[in-house]
Amino acid sequence: MIVFRISVILLLLTASYAFADEASKAAKLKELAKIQGLHEIIEQQRSYIHEQVKLIAPKMLQEAKTQFHGLKKTTLTALENSYQKFLNAAKPAWTTEEAVNAWGVYYGLHVTEDELDNILAFYRLPIGQKNAEAAKIAMQQWAIFFMEKNNVTVEKATQAYISELRAIIKAEAKKKYRK
Fold first, then answer.
1. Given its phi and psi angles, is residue 111 left (phi above 0), alpha (psi -120 to 50 degrees) or beta?
2. Taking 90 as the threshold, does the pLDDT of residue 50 lie above it?
3. So what's the pLDDT on residue 119?
4. What is the DSSP letter of 70?
5. Which residues make Cβ contacts (< 8 Å) with residue 121, sequence separation at least 6?
6. With contact defined as beta carbons under 8 Å apart, do 28 and 117 qualify?
7. Measured distance CA(32)–CA(38) in Å, rounded
8. How many domains does the chain have?
9. In what helix (H) or strand (E) does residue 20 lie, and over which residues does it extend?
């Protein structure tokens, strides 16, 4: 019985130590995320994602209005309402905090707490602070680069899609008028 009690006590102490160790590591990961400016970078990404949708959606709405000219005012209002619902639904469903926490989990899997202490020590040095600041700026510029490149691709794909829709509708309209 004494051996069992000692085993239970050792198990509880080990579990408490492991939990405290994880909490300490999690706090250090949050500090690293703050130093690296992840909140700002991720918030910028959320904004870019929504802005990209806002570039495409109006063109599709305008195309629908142009293609089906002479629509009733109630139909136009319904199209506008649908557009607004689409914009709201297309907003990222994740928060910045969720993304930073996920980064902490993934990053934390690949470093020990001792390594994390050394990384944080580096970022507390002037050269580490310079590195963090340069990395933040570069990440923001890099994100803009990708967004601009992706906008070109999406714009081309949208135009091709609209052209294809027009061709399908025209072909269907011709069939109806022949009958």
1. beta
2. no
3. 95
4. T
5. 128
6. yes
7. 9
8. 1
9. helix 2-36
Each residue's pLDDT tens digit, 109-147 = 999 999 999 999 999 999 999 999 999 899 888 888 877
| Percent of the chain scoring above 70 in pLDDT | 85
Cα–Cα distance between 32 and 26 in angstroms, integer? 10
Gap between the Cα atoms of 129 and 36, Å rounded: 9
**Each residue of 51-73: pLDDT tens digit?**
777 777 777 778 777 777 777 88
Whether the CB-CB separation of 58 and 132 falls below 8 Å is answered with no
What residues contact residue 145 under an 8 Å CB cut-off, 6+ apart?
A: none
Q: Phi, psi (5° rounding) for residue 68?
A: -115, 60
Pick the closest to residue 48 from 159, 136, 148, 152 (CA basis).
148
Residue 42 burial (C-beta neighbours within 10 Å; 0-12, 13-18, 19+):
buried
Task: Report CA-CA distances (Å) from 78 to 68, 73, 81, 117, 119.
Answer: 14, 9, 5, 57, 55
Domain range enclosing 16? 2-178
pLDDT score at 17: 44
Tokens of 128: 């580490």
How far apart, in whole angstroms, are the C-alpha atoms of residue 56 and residue 84?
A: 13
Cα distance between residue 174 and residue 167, in whole Å: 11
